Amino acid sequence: MILIIHGNNTISSRNYYFEEKNKLKNPVFINGDGITFDQVFQALENNTFFEEKKEIIIENFFGKNKSTTNEFKKIAEYLNKNKSSNVLFWDNDEVSKASLNTFKTATVRIFSYPQTLFAFLDNIKPGKGQYLIKLFHELLNTMAAELVFFMINRQFRIMLSLTGGANQIDEVKRMAPWQLSKFKNQVALFGNDQLLELYNKLFEIEIGQKTGKAFYSMEKSIDFFLLGL
């Protein structure tokens, strides 16, 4: 059996990944970055008398390897033919359809954020508080306030990193040029000092919620934060 877990909702996909991982008895872990066909072959062919099925876990195979490379094709062809093993893939982002199509018999589980979330994050700009609150409360129908806060915090962390250089954090390094351009446009609307001030406010909200000293719920805290943009 081949199971592929992926999607941009890393928290949910990671939780599901751990659930499935814990069901395996004695899996061999292989890092997808720099993976070779020989590693996969040896992990699955190194049978012992007492083992009925070999099990392997491969993290970030699709994100680190192009489906057009010979190594990717060899691994995919071998795993598709190997019906007696359990293979668990987990990628920390959404896998392309072209890559997924190389494993036609695989079970695929995708965990994605609602599109409203990206509209919300893209519209985090000065003076748009009322509109953002409207989008925020729409998001609460499908997402917890704490998860929305996590994404707001991430958005400001990335913007703040761009004020000191575009390659400071891993999230920036993995971005496509169009994504980077959108973040830079947001940075220009705020300015360095305001970004730092707002990021500090987010930090205060987080500390207040974690220590139980916050005056308001997470939902209300986010409302007030958005109004102050």
Write the layout of secondary structure elements.
Elements: E1 2-6, H1 10-21, E2 28-31, H2 37-45, E3 54-59, H3 61-64, H4 70-81, E4 85-90, H5 97-100, E5 107-110, H6 115-122, H7 129-139, H8 145-162, H9 170-173, H10 177-190, H11 192-211, H12 218-227
Parallel strand pairs: 1-4, 1-5, 2-3, 3-4
Helix pairs in contact: 6-7, 7-12, 8-10, 8-11, 11-12
CATH class of the largest domain: Mainly Alpha
**What is the oligomer described by this structure?**
single chain
Low-confidence stretches: none
Q: Which CATH architecture of the largest domain?
A: Up-down Bundle
| Domains, number | 2
Order of helices and strands: EHEHEHHEHEHHHHHHH
Major beta-sheet overview = 5 strands, parallel
Give the overall silhouette.
elongated
Helix content: 55-70%
Distance between the termini: 50 Å
What's the total helix number? 12
Total DSSP E strands: 5
Our estimate of the beta-strand percent is: 5-15%
Mean pLDDT: 91
Structural class: alpha/beta
Strand order of the largest sheet: 2-3-4-1-5
Describe the protein in words.
With 229 residues, the chain is an alpha/beta fold. The chain has two domains: 2-110, 3-Layer(aba) Sandwich (Rossmann fold), CATH 3.40.50; 115-227, Zinc Finger, Delta Prime, domain 3 (Up-down Bundle). It has twelve helices and five strands. The chain has helices at residues 10-21, 37-45, 61-64, 70-81, 97-100, 115-122, 129-139, 145-162, 170-173, 177-190, 192-211, 218-227; strands spanning 2-6, 28-31, 54-59, 85-90, 107-110. The protein has a five-stranded parallel β-sheet, with helices on both faces. Helix 2 links the parallel strand 2 and strand 3. Helix 6 (115-122) runs antiparallel to helix 7 (129-139), helix 8 (145-162) packs antiparallel against helix 11 and helix 11 (192-211) packs antiparallel against helix 12 (218-227). The protein is elongated and about 60 Å long.
